[in-house]
Amino acid sequence: MAVLEVCTRFPLLSPELSNPGSPAAVFHGFIDVGGIDHEVYISTPHFPSAVGLTLSTDCHLTSLITACHSHLHQGKKYETALEFLLKLQQICSSHSNSVNCKGEGEGLAVLNKPLLDSLLMHLDTIGWSRVSQVSADFTVFSLTTRDEGGRTHTVKVKVGTGYPQEQPEVEADLPNNIAFSYNPSEGVVGVVDAWEKQLCALQDVWQVLDELDSSALVLDPPAPPPRRALTRRILLENQVSVQLSVSLQHPRCFPQCHLLGPSRLTSPLAAMLSQNFQDWDLERSIKVNLETILGVGVVCKKGVKSREESQGIECAICYCLHFEDALPDLTCDSCSHTYHLQCLYEWLCGQTNSRHSVNVIFGECPFCRELIMCKLPA
């Protein structure tokens, strides 16, 4: 009768009775705790008494029992196994539900109704199809648009509790800050209008840079380059790289050029730049102009990996192109191998014949053993 009562109250428990006439019983199955079925194995050597009862279960229910230990053993002792199981189910279920409710409450965002009313009205004006991301409390959101050239742009907006009277913070991938005069009556609508006008004004800059990115092997910045970047480092066919800085106001004009490589190769090219910069043609691309003025081809984007390896543009010590966002910018005048500043400095420090002088270290090139020097890293 006692076994039947346990199985009635816990229908997912199955009894495994021992020898006939023995009071011992074992139950195996599941107990519902907080709406979750937990597998249990219960041994009752003096069934139906709770004396000597042992229970084995999963780690989750075990942690609940541990947390509720003081409540389970508070007051009178349990006379029967059924009484103990019912109390266990009640206390652990109550504890589990309270923990879940607390966890859910902690995750809820507290919404500012005046802010939300104004913001929703402004986002309705902008169009919800352009909202790409929004935080739970609506204080941070991102808007996306496409410019005339089909490029996708995103602006991130953060509003304070004083919105719309308080000016929002704006973050966008642009080479300059968004210029706008904030009007509380327009709110974020006016900010987005100013952002889109700035995108229109930057079309020529991005067209020039996109042409270069698609035709030349760009060493830096890594692909895809951020829209804010106005510099590109490209590779010439004679192992010299050129750092280009495009003008924001006049992107098709002659850019600032910094030649990187062994002096025996960069010196003649620097002379060519000085002599022929007036031949720069505004109707031609940067790549074509450089090849015409310097008389040296620009390495094309096709076959990037094989060309990088064959040209030896990676650091000859770590065999990587980028090291902590830095490119190899030191070149041995004798063998033309290039090195990261940090790599070469650490190499030279490990050589017994290297010597220091103020902020410079001198030593042998790792490849040709000729004299090479570098400054101490910042």
From TrEMBL:
Q: Which residues form the RING-type domain?
A: 315-369
What's a BP term from Gene Ontology annotated to this protein? protein monoubiquitination
CDD domains the record matches: DRWD-C_FANCL (cd23832), DRWD-N_FANCL (cd23831), ELF_FANCL (cd23786)
Q: Which residues cross the membrane?
A: none
The UniProt keywords, alphabetically, are: Metal-binding, Zinc, Zinc-finger
A GO molecular function for this record? ubiquitin protein ligase activity
Q: Name one GO cellular component term.
A: Fanconi anaemia nuclear complex
Q: What is this protein called?
A: RING-type domain-containing protein
Please name the source species: Petrolisthes manimaculis
